[in-house]
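Long-time lurker, first post. I've been practising inverse folding by hand and with some scripts of my own, and I keep getting stuck on stretches where the structure tokens seem ambiguous. Below is the full token string for one chain I'm working on. Before anyone asks, I'm not after the true native sequence, just a reasonable design that respects the backbone. If someone could post their per-position residues I'd love to compare against what I wrote down in my notebook.
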């Protein structure tokens, strides 16, 4: 869809063209912890206490309960990728294609169980004190894996809202997300609640699955760590099936329990009958226990799914949009990888200042910016504008 006269078009966002610099892509988060650590230096894991000291100093002027949405972090606390890329990685980077398996179940219950497993697979390890860049307004990320094509757009900057649409024409799968992280400082921790919904559609069966995602907790004391916590609900109105998942971190003081524990159940809203109990660890294995028969089966295996993940690559550099995340932040990502913090600070400041200047220019001219690919509904949801049109192959692919 072409931008309307009162919209800012893709070429107006003030970002360099693909031929002026190279896209920077980095490995997706996985269980290969040593591999992830290599991005930040071999001594990163050993420097946790030093890093914690820097984090606490950073938050000294911040009052407990404060909203951190507009809090600016120095590049030393950024991972070399945008939040859009992190969302994209969780969908396209997988050693086992659980998403395609969602359509292989012969019954609604069998399909529902695989959807639950797929939902768990989007939970990925997070390195302490490393967060992605807050995407700029209108930033996009277009990536493909096999027949799955995914496009993300930053549809709002304040508050930060990311929208995602994905299609697999062969499997008749469609997906739409909108996510709004809302981080708050609580003295000994930072907790990011992720508002929004994820909708997965299995078109061949006319089934729609609506779900949310857990909160992310950065715990500072007594021992620095990251945890996924909170409740996730997965519903399919057409089949009357629902699942509740509870991500449990350690105890209040962080001394007892596991930081990756996951429990829950699958039940029928039609008959009010509990069907399965869910128990395990999202970074290990999760099992299903049939309540009627007592039999237990493996629902999800993290080692099979989120290890040995391949890094996306640019297949068609001339197909990259000027708004592509890997281009927008390329100078910053390259500087972080080289640990050149002076250049990193300059690169980050350049992107942010350019966006502030564009916002001021739009305001002075009375221009209303609108997303290129998504529109907001009256009830606050975000919908894909080109309904019924499958996404094309992306210039960035997972090999």
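-- Answer (accepted) --
I ran through it position by position. Result:
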């Amino acid at each position: 869809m072409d931008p309307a006269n009162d919209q800012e078009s893709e070429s107006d966002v003030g970002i360099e063209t693909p031929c002026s610099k190279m896209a920077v892509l980095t490995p997706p988060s996985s269980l290969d912890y040593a591999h992830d650590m290599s991005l930040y230096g071999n001594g990163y894991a050993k420097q946790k206490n030093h890093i914690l000291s820097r984090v606490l100093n950073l938050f000294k002027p911040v009052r407990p309960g404060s909203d951190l949405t507009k809090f600016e972090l120095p590049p030393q606390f950024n991972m070399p990728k945008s939040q859009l890329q992190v969302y994209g990685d969780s969908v396209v980077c997988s050693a086992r294609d659980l998403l395609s398996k969602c359509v292989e179940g012969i019954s609604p219950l069998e399909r529902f169980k695989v959807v639950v497993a797929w939902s768990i697979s989007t939970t990925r390890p997070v390195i302490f004190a490393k967060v992605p860049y807050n995407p700029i307004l209108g930033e996009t990320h277009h990536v493909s894996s096999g027949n799955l094509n995914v496009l993300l757009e930053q549809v709002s900057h304040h508050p930060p809202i990311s929208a995602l649409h994905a299609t697999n024409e062969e499997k008749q799968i469609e997906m739409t997300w909108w996510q709004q992280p809302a981080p708050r400082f609580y003295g000994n921790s930072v907790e990011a609640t992720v508002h929004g919904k994820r909708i997965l559609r299995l078109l061949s069966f006319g089934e729609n699955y609506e779900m949310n995602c857990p909160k992310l907790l950065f715990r500072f004391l007594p021992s620095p760590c990251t945890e996924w916590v909170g409740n996730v609900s997965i519903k399919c109105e057409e089949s009357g099936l629902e699942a509740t998942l509870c991500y449990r971190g350690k105890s209040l003081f962080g001394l007892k329990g596991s930081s990756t524990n996951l429990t829950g159940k699958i039940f029928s809203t039609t008959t009010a009958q509990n069907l399965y109990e869910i128990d395990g660890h999202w970074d290990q294995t999760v099992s299903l226990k049939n309540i009627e028969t007592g039999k237990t089966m493996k629902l999800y295996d993290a080692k099979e799914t989120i290890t040995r993940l391949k890094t996306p690559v640019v297949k068609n550099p001339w197909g990259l949009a000027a708004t592509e995340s890997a281009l927008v932040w390329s100078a910053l990502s390259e500087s972080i990888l080289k640990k050149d913090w002076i250049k990193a600070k300059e690169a980050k400041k350049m992107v942010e200042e350019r966006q502030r200047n564009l916002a001021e220019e739009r305001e002075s001219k009375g221009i209303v910016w609108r997303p290129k690919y998504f529109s907001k509904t009256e009830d606050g949801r975000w919908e894909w504008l080109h309904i019924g049109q499958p996404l094309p192959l992306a210039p960035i692919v997972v090999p």
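A couple of notes from the structure itself: The chain has nine helices and 19 strands. The chain has a mean pLDDT of 90. Happy to go over any region you disagree with.
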